[in-house]
């Protein structure tokens, strides 16, 4: 399958997807040791369809673009917890995501920090909910909820008029 996939994470899912036969997979992390660790797993597993890059998702190289799928587990959470200007960093995350993904491209996010409703607000500009993935439920004090949110968003085409309106309202 010749989908281009970018991972804003280095994790087990990347290796599982590689085994499903996707042919063009890029894994990124801004930590060189995370990339090094993933490199050794790739070598051990004999997977040649994964490229690894040390990249800051908030300041990506220009050649990273045109991806069909972007998968994040824990990176948006980590960025959100940054004590140094987290609000601005979250906005930058959405901009970077928009830049790397093709229109109609999918964004899969797993978060332990944010609820479904909060994620819908965070990614309301330029993305729409495609599907909610099932995650474990828990009950406490007579109420039930999910400890993890896993959502699939799709990038929508923002028309020039909408863009201008967003700028004026900003
Ligand atoms: C909570 S860990 C999740 C790791 C992995 N996805 C997993 O599920 O085990 C968050 C990862 O995001 C990386 N990270 C945080 N901020 C980043 C950024 N701005 N750009 C790229 N990677 C970042 C960290 O280095 C860390 O490896």
TrEMBL record:
GO cellular component: cytoplasm
Protein name per the record: EEF1A lysine methyltransferase 2
Molecular function terms from GO: protein-lysine N-methyltransferase activity
Domain Methyltransferase: 14-131
Coiled-coil portions: none
